[in-house]
Specification:
The chain is of the alpha/beta class. The N terminus is likely disordered. Helix 1 packs across helix 7, helix 5 packs across helix 6 and helix 7 crosses helix 8. The protein has two domains: about 240 residues, Spore Coat Polysaccharide Biosynthesis Protein SpsA, Chain A, CATH 3.90.550; about 50 residues, no CATH class. Helix 1 links the parallel strand 2 and strand 3. About 35% of the residues lie in helices and about 25% in strands.
């Protein structure tokens, strides 16, 4: 099937973009990841010459005091954690709930970043360009930005699964058409709010199987976008998402070396970590032996 012809609007003036991070549960290693990612984003916004009106940062957290001295907007989600996590059944449900809340709260485009990420030069320009309205087969639509395509037919055991969504109506899993993008990055506009509501309903229809399908939040969003025929724009080269186990172990060590012990010191590292294949393998070998012998924790 040929790709749809798309044309961006010339002279488009992008509205202010709100970048979103999520912190809950209080684990220090995840907070260090968030800080490292946020520092890379702040450096990128500065390098792009972005004014405060062009890009702001909000942290959704159950511990607002932790970020009280940071130059970000802090949203306390402590009271919402139970409902947003489906009563604790699926904590990744919180992510689309945060995106939906931000779309309504800020009434502006938002871009959610997973904490285990590094922003590279050109990221802000790429995201804003790909979120701009485009004409697709004579229909004007704004794309949803996601990290990257993963696979077709992501959950074959769901063959025959059906549900009904609040806005899009009937849904059926299709082994030949169903797909999944990685949701380490989600860029959406206010017009996409109903699709986020459908995504949450989709997750709720599968939440009893969350242990068997641990990535249903990105599957649900991907399928809702497919059903609604909303374009998905991938951002991979300017956004490094190191979610894989070996990379994350390696990055924990790199982040610990790079960050100031002063939590409120937001000076960026002198050099950003690079995902060198052999460096990752070597450190994981050292980590495995050290962990087994007890000199690495």
């Amino acid at each position: 099937m040929p790709a749809p012809h798309s044309t961006a609007f010339s002279g488009y003036n992008p509205p202010m973009l709100h970048y979103l991070y999520l912190d809950y549960g209080g684990l220090p290693k995840y907070r260090r990841e968030l800080k490292y990612s946020l520092l890379s984003l702040r450096q990128e916004l500065g390098a792009q010459g972005a004014q405060p009106e062009a890009g702001r940062i909000a942290i959704y957290t159950d511990a607002p005091g932790v970020y009280a001295r940071w130059p970000v907007e802090v949203v306390d989600i402590g009271p919402q954690l139970g409902a947003w996590s489906g009563g604790g059944l699926y904590h990744h449900r919180i992510k689309p709930a945060v995106v939906l809340d931000a779309l309504k709260r800020f009434d502006a485009p938002v871009c959610f970043l997973d904490s285990d990420s590094i922003v590279r030069p050109g990221f802000h320009a790429e995201v804003t360009a790909k979120m701009a309205p485009q004409e697709v087969w004579s229909v004007t639509k704004a794309a949803v930005v996601m990290n990257g395509f993963e696979l077709m037919n992501p959950f074959p055991p769901l063959k025959g699964f059906r549900t009904s969504l609040p806005h899009l109506g009937a849904y059926r899993y299709d082994v030949t058409q169903s797909w999944m993008y990685n949701s380490g990055l989600i860029g959406a506009s206010p017009e996409h709010a109903p699709l986020l509501e459908d995504t949450l309903a989709f997750i709720d229809a599968l939440i009893g199987r969350a242990r068997k399908f641990p990535t249903i939040e990105q599957f649900a969003l991907s399928e809702v976008l497919r059903l609604a025929q909303v374009p998905v724009a991938e951002v991979k080269d300017s956004f490094l998402h190191y979610w894989q186990g070996r990379r994350r172990i390696y990055m924990a060590h790199q982040i610990e070396k790079a960050l100031s012990p002063d939590w409120n010191d937001l000076t960026p590292p002198r050099q950003w970590a690079r995902m060198n294949y052999w460096a990752i393998r070597a450190y994981n070998y050292y980590y495995g032996i050290g962990h087994a012998l007890g000199f690495v924790k």
